């Protein structure tokens, strides 16, 4: 189900976002409660018609940027994220230090084994999406992997952007987006992904999902 709010042609940075119901995600009901809550809260934000505002982590301003959206979402969640950083590179370092992180050094497609452990609720990090100067890690963008769309079978991420696409349409704001690899030769790259610290105990993951994104999307055993 695709719901569109706003118009990207109306004026610069006006919200043009997409949303869905959690029941439109494959295996949503099989996820741990913490992941379900995270996804519900993320989808609720996509319905608020928030645009992209660089430097904002407050929806009261009418929009947020990528790391600001994740910072707000996790800060509003049922788990207390006392150590949650604000910036995407620092979030990545936080995941590396406090949880399980998977680097995608050589992957050129989402079918690569480096994505085998990707799970709904994971933070996904990009590098090279813009020139950010000196950073803890070369990470410039962050979103949350939600799972696969029941209608298309394609992977979906949640976050904020000014120009990424969802089902072929450019989106601006806090929205759903297609999870795709950057084009060959692009400066941007997917740096890696990992579990949100404290969100879900390892033993709480559905046993059928341990094959991860690679096996579930491409039919691995």
Automatic annotation (TrEMBL):
Q: Which residues form the NlpC/P60 domain?
A: 32-191
Instruction: Give the top-rank taxon of the lineage listed in the UniProt record for this protein.
Output: Bacteria
- GO function terms (MF aspect): cysteine-type peptidase activity
| Keywords assigned by UniProt, alphabetized | Hydrolase, Protease, Thiol protease
Question: Would you indicate the residue range of the signal peptide?
Answer: none
Gene3D superfamilies documented for this protein: endopeptidase domain like (from Nostoc punctiforme) (3.90.1720.10)
Give the record's family classification.
Answer: Belongs to the peptidase C40 family.
What protein name does the entry list?
NlpC/P60 domain-containing protein
Lineage, top ranks: Bacteria, Pseudomonadati, Verrucomicrobiota, Verrucomicrobiia, Verrucomicrobiales
């Amino acid at each position: 189900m695709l719901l569109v709010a706003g118009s990207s042609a109306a004026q610069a940075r006006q919200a043009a976002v997409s949303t869905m119901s959690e029941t439109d995600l494959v295996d949503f009901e099989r996820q741990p409660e913490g992941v379900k809550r995270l996804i519900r809260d993320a989808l609720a934000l996509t319905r608020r018609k928030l645009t992209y505002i660089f430097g904002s982590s407050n929806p009261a301003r009418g929009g947020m940027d990528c790391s600001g959206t994740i910072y707000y979402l996790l800060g509003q969640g049922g788990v207390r994220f006392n150590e949650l950083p604000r910036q995407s590179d620092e979030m990545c370092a936080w995941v590396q230090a406090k949880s399980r992180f998977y680097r995608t050094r050589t992957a050129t497609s989402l079918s690569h084994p480096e994505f085998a452990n990707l799970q709904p609720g994971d933070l996904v990090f990009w590098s090279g999406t813009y020139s950010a100067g000196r950073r803890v890690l070369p990470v410039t963008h962050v979103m949350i992997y939600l799972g696969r769309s029941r209608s298309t079978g394609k992977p979906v991420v949640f976050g904020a952007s000014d120009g990424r696409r969802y089902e072929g349409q450019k989106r601006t704001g806090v929205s759903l987006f297609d999870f795709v690899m950057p084009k060959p030769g692009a400066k941007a790259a997917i740096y890696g992904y990992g579990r949100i610290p404290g969100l879900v105990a390892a033993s709480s993951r559905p046993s059928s999902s341990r094959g991860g994104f690679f096996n579930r999307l491409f039919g691995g055993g």
